[in-house]
Amino acid sequence: MPPVFPMLTVLSMFYYMCLRRRARTATRGEMNSRRAIESNTRALPINVEIVQYAKEVLDFSSHYGSENSMSYTMWNLAGIPNVYPSSGDFTQTAVFRTYGTWWDRCPSARLPFKRTPSTFCSQDYVELAFEEPVYPTAVHILETYHPGAVVRILACSANPYSQNPPAEVRWEILWSEAPTKVNGPQARQFTPCIKQINFPTNLIRLEVNSSLLDYYTELDAVVLHGVKERPVLSLKTSMIDMNDIDEDEDEEKFACGMDTLNKQFSIVTLREWPTNGYFDKLPYELIQLILNHLTVPDLCRLAQTCKLLYQHCCDPLQYIHLSLQPYWARINDTSLEYLQSRCTLIQWLNLSWTGNRGAISVSGFSRFLKVCGSELVRLELSCGHFLNETCLEVITEMCPNLQELNLSSCDKIPPQAFNHIAKVGSLKRLILYRTKVEQTALLSILNFCSELQHLSLGSCVMIEDYDLIASMMGAKCKKLRSLDLWRCKNITESGIAELASGCQLLEELDLGWCPTLQSSTGCFTNLARKLPNLQKLFLTANRSVCDTDIEELAANCTHLRQLDILGTRMVSPASLRKLLESCKDLSLLDVSFCSQIDNRVVLELNANFPNVFIKKSFTQ
Description:
CATH architecture of the largest domain: Sandwich
Number of domains: 3
Domain F-box: 276-331
Shape: globular
Pfam family, one: F-box-like
Number of helices: 15
GO biological process, one term: SCF-dependent proteasomal ubiquitin-dependent protein catabolic process
Low-confidence stretches: 1-44, 234-254
Strand order of the largest sheet: 12-13-14-15-16-17-18-19-20-21-22-23
Oligomer: single chain
InterPro entries: F-box-like_dom_sf (IPR036047), F-box_dom (IPR001810), FBXL15_LRR (IPR057207), Leu-rich_rpt_Cys-con_subtyp (IPR006553), LRR_dom_sf (IPR032675)
Largest sheet: 12 strands, parallel
Radius of gyration: 27 Å
Helix content: 25-40%
Protein name: FBXL4 protein
């Protein structure tokens, strides 16, 4: 008779796990009730709390404002409040570029990466530096219009004002939560309950998700509370909240998974297991299909279970589409090195937000692309501040099949480096928002990349003559479907005429904040007549848009879905009624600050056209 002791051991372990789970479940309510009482006694006050406003805005992913002004820019987050406690739309606040889900419903919308963890929902970020490094005790965010976008607050171990950069940069999540719908656009002070960290910080990062908002969120200031000395935990913390255990375990799992990217995946040999269970009986393809639903950290953990699953988790077919953006804080050269052998077939790669503060080097990025770039079709590098001319040269040489390149907010790339992009003649999508691309390089790109379908040049301030650029687009980019010229300062009716004549497949056109366009020249009428496929047209802050333009849109652009005429003084309710009656698919109409469209008119239009979101902003 075989010994029963091994079985008893297994049963004992199982019994222990059941008891632990039961204890956690049973005491959760009790611990929650104690949490409010004991939260004020966890840290013994051993020094004075320091209160400070942000000294400087170090980095951000986007903003509504111009690169050459302060209105609606992230730079307004530095210093004391400008607006709070007032509510409304104010130019002195920080505003991100997008809100709602409208940008996901237009022709330029990109397909999402699969396997993105459900806990990562950030769309934009801003990083703020403070004068004094402290152990944070509270973070106050002063939101003055449509609050509720902040979904994550992080702290960094690196001091941006230190002369000696640290060997290792750590980011810790102070608070995180899924997007929530806040009732009403009124101002508020948002003070989430943050966790304690074991290092002082003067670098705070806010991440936002504006998908549930009815309009742009506006932030006025951020206040950091903290102490100079690390708080000492009181003895009463022996009564631990079960929710804290869950959160800690989740973070440990995340850390373990990403550390595995750098360590465990590099292990060549695994322990020999006698069997692989019933997985041996499943078809290879079925196992691959099942694993397709796992995130990258989950794949790393699963690879440690048995040899068969290790082989599956390392199969390049699992890495055809790979987004490392959710793990931006932990991705470095070592991560890319250990992923190389698994990414030889990769087609979509998202490295947005990664590599900053020395985490990814030019050589590390170049080595990765030399091994894994041959099949790349889509490359997302938004806010990749490690990128330089060498990186762009490597991209163009190692990625011959590249069709989509996103360099949004890569503002450290020197102007001359963009010339290399012209070598990628297969490009269909190019995003250069907030980059330093200059006119000569852009003309070369347009000349050689005739397959372009989506082009973003929003806030590209170094282009001297947009009429020349528009003329080149009209001559060379006949397949263009979406074009972003947000805040281009010098395009005129001449450039619009060339563009409309040559790019008649355009479905989306953003001419927001283009002050040199005047309706009296007939430029908007010409657009409406030449571009019947338009689905999205932004004429934001163009005060010359008039009834004639709206009526031409109603007559010629019946497929229109989104129209922004914020700020115009010349559009009447009658012309809007014609537009709404003609454009049956219209879903977004922004008439904020349109002097002839008051709240009474908006209510009437909403009642008659309930399927259209009609936005009317206000200022108090």
